[in-house]
Amino acid sequence: MHRLCQTNLTSARAARRFHDALEDEVTQPTTTSTDPTTSIPIPKIQNVVSSVNLDTIIDLYELALRANNTEYNPKRFHAVVMRMRSPRSTANIFSSGKMIVTGTNSLATSRLATLKFARMVEKAGFNARFEDYAVENIVASCNVGFGVNLDALARTHALICVYESEIFPGLVYHVFEPKVTVMLFGNGKVVLTGSKIHESLLRAFELVYPVLVEFMRD
């Protein structure tokens, strides 16, 4: 049996944001096969979180004044929020020079967006560099094309999953090898997160998919 472990309800509450954001993204199956036992859908990347060190101290007030498409409200958040349309993405830039970029749907566009944001900071008059770029998290999703009986699944796997429908509409559990958090919804939606490696998300889904088939809703 693959090693699975109960996750906590904090993860479930945080994961609600992913479910809401993906409401319109994964309503259709990602495979055309009518036999769920012979063809496995391929989860698609929905969001990549990356970070980089700009290696310079940044005056956030000045950055917000000089750069376009920025927001800065230090009473709410101690970072400048910068947005870009192509590729569509958002950067949180801190005075220490750390920058977090979210919103892209591939590893390549995540790196491209991070580079472009760094260039925008440089154009605003700061000696920004591009150091220690790293992918921090990947979120992928798919729709298996059939409903899943979460109540029955939760009863059968009570020791390895969390299902509190009054708090969060999905069933949540961790896969340890590879380490991935998987969220399952009754309508067939699946969201995978918690890994920096895309292949780990795909492997985790391969491990979980037979369980979904087992608890396919009539």
TrEMBL record:
Pfam families the UniProt entry points to: TBP
Subcellular location per the Swiss-Prot or TrEMBL entry: Nucleus
Biased amino acid composition, Low complexity: 27-40
GO biological process: DNA-templated transcription initiation
InterPro entries xref list: TBP, TBP_dom_sf, TBP_eukaryotic
One CC-aspect GO term: nucleus
Entry's transmembrane regions: none
GO molecular function, one term: DNA binding
Entry superkingdom: Eukaryota
SUPFAM superfamilies in the record: TATA-box binding protein-like
Family: Belongs to the TBP family.
Descriptive protein name: Eukaryotic TATA box binding transcription initiation factor TFIID-1
Organism: Piedraia hortae CBS 480.64
